[in-house]
Fold this sequence. Notes:
This protein is of the alpha+beta class. It has helices at residues 2-34, 94-99, 166-169, 173-197, 200-212, 217-248, 262-266, 269-292, 308-317, 319-328, 339-377, 380-391, 393-420, 425-434, 449-457, 487-492, 511-518, 534-542, 562-572, 584-627, 631-637, 641-670, 683-713; strands at 36-38, 47-56, 62-72, 89-92, 111-115, 128-132, 144-149, 156-157, 251-253, 258-260, 438-443, 463-469, 481-485, 501-505, 526-531, 548-554, 577-580.
Amino acid sequence: MALLLATAVLSVVLAGLTAIHAVYVGKEKHRIARTPVVQEQASDEGSTTWLLASDSLQNKRRFHVVFLAPHEGDAPLPPGVDHWPAPGEAVLSPELRKAGSGEDIDHRYGRLAGVIRPSGLDEPTEWLAYVRPRDGLSDKSPSSVIAGFGPATPGIFAPGLEPGSARDDDKAEWMFQSAVAGLLGLPALALLVIAVRTGAHARDRRTALIAALGGRRTDRALVALGEAAQPVLLGALLGTATVAPALLTDLRIPFTQYILSSEYLRQHGWLIGLTPALALVLVFAIVVVAELTPRRSGTGTRPHSPPASRWLPRVAGLFPVMFLIAVRGPDFVGSDSGQRTLIGWAGIAGTVLTLPAAIATAIAAIGPVLTRWGQARGLAGTLVAGRRTTTYPGSTVRLVTGVTVALIVLMQAVAWQDLFGAQSNDAQRTLDRIGTSALSVGVRGQVSDAEMTTFLDRLPDNTQAVLLAGPVGGPGSSGPMRLYGDCPALTTLHLECPARTLRVSGPPQDPRLQEMVRWTPHGPLQMDIHRTSGPALAHRTAVSTEESALVLVRSDGRAISAAAIKKLAHQVLPRGARASAPGEDELSAGIPNRDQGRWSTLLGLLGVTVLTLTAGISAMAEFLRHGRALAPLSVLTGGLHVFRTSAAWTVFMPLALAALAGSAVASGLADPVSESDDAFLTRDLTFAAAGTVLGIGILMWAWANTVSVKQARCWRPRGE
C-alpha cells in the first residue's frame, strides 16, 4: 500500500509540474494573439478605437474593462468576440458573469450582447469585459486606433494595450513550480523512501539468504523489482486515472476555484501522459538502489551513540526557549532592524528541531503512568504500550518529526503570503470601520454639466454628494483641502453650512469624512468648506481633476450600493464611473495575493496529508514488526482487545499529540508574521490541518489493529 500510494502521489506531482508549464505557455499564446497592433497610418482595411480601463467587484480583485468602437472600414474585433455589440451593449467573460451575478454585472455596462469565447481569454477563470459606449468613442488621446490583434497584423505591436491584468498579478512560473515541488513533492519523496524501507527487516533477511546461495546483484535487483511490481503498477494506474480527466475536460480545482484548461494540457498531452511512467521508473530505481545499498552489520568496535532516552530530555528542554525566541525575540530589536527577521528565523529553526523531542519526551513521561494503570487494571495492551513508549522514545521522534515540520512550513507559507499583501491591510481596516457608508466616485473621461446634473439628480434616495479636493497646487502644496456641497450634504457630514466659505482645522467629526480625508493627499489638516448649489457642484465635478473625488453619503448613515452607483453611471455618463469605498483600490490591489495564497494552503494541506500518511505507515510497520510478540497474549488474555489498545497508544496517540501541539505551535509561530486581522492564517486553517492529521491517525490506528489481529489469528504455538 505504501508503494502504491507513493507512486500515485509522485505521478500527480510530476503531472502537476508539467501542467503548470503547459498553462503558462498556453496563457502566453492567448495573450500574444489578442495583443492590439496600433495602426501606423490610415488604411482602408479597417480599424478600431480602443481604450483600456478597469473595474472591480466588492471585496474582489480588479479586472479590465475595454471600451471599443468601430473606427474605419471593416473594424477588427478582439479574439473571442463573434460580432460587434450594438452601442450601449457589452460582452463579458463567463466567470465574470458568475462572480458578479450578485451585483447585476450583466447590466452594469448596458445590455448584455454575449459572452467571450475561450479563445479570447488567457484562461477560463479570467474576468474581462468589452463595452461599446452608447455614444461611441473618440479616437483622440487617451484612446488608441488599432489595426488588429496579434503579431501577424501589420503595425506597431502594443503590449501596453493588452487586456487582462495577469501579467502584473501572476507569480512567475518557477515560483508556482517551487511551491508544488516543496509543499507536495518533498512529502511525496519522503513517502517513497518510507515505502521502500517498510518491512525491510524481512527483506534484509531474504537478501542475505540470496547472497548466501550465490545470488548476484542482478538477481537481488530482479527479486526486488518483482516484489514491487504489482503495487507500483497499480499506483501508476491510479496516478493516470487521477490525471486523465484534466486532459479531457476543464476541471475546477477545489478551494482555489481555479479552472484548469484542458486545452492547454492537451497541447502538452504526450508529456503529461508520460509522467506516471516516469514516476514508475523512478520508484523502481529507488527500490533497486535501496535493495543493493550495503547494510551495516551491527557489529564493530566503534562506540555507539548514547540512547535517545538520555539526550531527548535535554533537547526537549530547549523547546520553550526556542519558541519564545521565535515569537518574542524580534521585539527586543528595533522595528527597522534587519536582525528581526534573522532572530525570528533562528527561533523557528530551533523550534522545528526541538518540538519533536518535546512531544516524544511528553509521551515517554506518560509511559510509566500507562504501565501502572495497565498493571492495576490488568490491561495487557496498555501495559505493553506504556513500557514501549518509555523504552523507545526515538521511534516517537521519527514518527512525529515529519508531521510537525509540515504543519510549521504550511503555516509559515500561508502567513508570508499574507505579508506580501500587507499593502492592503490599512484599506481593510478602513472598510471595517465605515464599510460602504461613503463612496468615492471617479468619472471616466469628459462629461458635460448636463450629464453630471442628471447623474446627481438620479442618485438613490437619501444620498448626498460633496466634492472633496486636495490643496490648490497639488499634493505637495501646504494649502488647505477644499470641500464643496449644499447645506443638506454638509449637515449630513456634521459640518456647518456657511454663507460662503468657512475654514476648519483638525480632524472632521464625521468618521466617514475622516476616512475620506485620510485617503486624500493633503498637507496640514485644514479644510475650506464651500457652500455650493447643485448646478455649481455638477460643473465643478465635470471639470475636476484626479486630485478631486465626488463623495456620496447617506443621510441615515447606511451603506451605499457601489454596484448600483456604477450601473447608474454607465446609464447616464459616456464611459461610466468608478465607485469605491475609501482605500478600496489599495485593497483590490492586494486581493491577487490573497487568492494565490489559497494555493499555498491547498498544497500545504495536501503535503501535510502525505507526510501524515508517511508517518502513519512507518509507525504501523514498526508496530507490526514489534507486535508479533503480542500474538501469544491473545491466548493469555482470552481476546484481541490487546491489539486495539496497544495500537491506539503506539500509533494514534503520537499522531494526535503531533496534530494538536504541532498546529498550536505552528499557529503561534505564524502570528507575528501575519500583520492583518483578516489574514489568510485563520482558525479554520489550523483546525483543518489538525483535523487532517487526527483523521489519518484514526485511519492508521484502525488499519494497524486490523492487520495485527489478522496476524495474531495466524499465530500458532510450536508443536500445535
